[in-house]
Amino acid sequence: MVTPFFCWTLFLFLVSLQQPTPALTQAAPIQADAARQVNPFKPTPESLAHAKKIYGYDCALCHGENGNGKGDAVADMKLKMKDYTDPTALEGLTDGELFYIIRHGKGLMPAEEEARAKPEDVWNMVVLVRSFSKK
Question: Mutual orientation of helices 119-131 and 45-58 as an angle, nearest 10°?
């Protein structure tokens, strides 16, 4: 016999599957003060190596090891990624905007949480991402 509790739990579960997850479907607009931020850290070879390590764990699966947008998950998830090896891919984006996008996520891209990457790490990832287009 099916209990009312089971029916209610099943109903809530099915409804939750139909609701989009706001954090994954719509990004909040980048605030003007965030967009104007300038990298307060001077990158070092060590800090960039650390940023590359974090990028390898958290970003390369979609963005590709060298930022070409051809990570292993792209085909499976049917994603269309920018090719950051193309110098025009980041035109018009400030370092502050890139920091904001990395820190808070955008669209299906999850946020780089502070527990995993300190602000200095994210600023160094901005430098790293910009370096992908330099020959």
Answer: 90
The three-class DSSP label of residue 38 is coil
Give me the amino acid identity at 113. Answer: E
Domains by residue range for the chain, with CATH? 22-131 (1.10.760.10)
Predicted TM-score (pTM) of the model is: 0.76
Complete DSSP assignment for 70-121: --HHHHHHT-----TTSTTTTTT--HHHHHHHHHH-BTTBPP--TTTS-HHH
pLDDT tens, residue by residue, 31-62: 889 899 999 999 999 999 999 999 999 999 99
Q: Which 3 state secondary structure label does DSSP give 64? A: coil
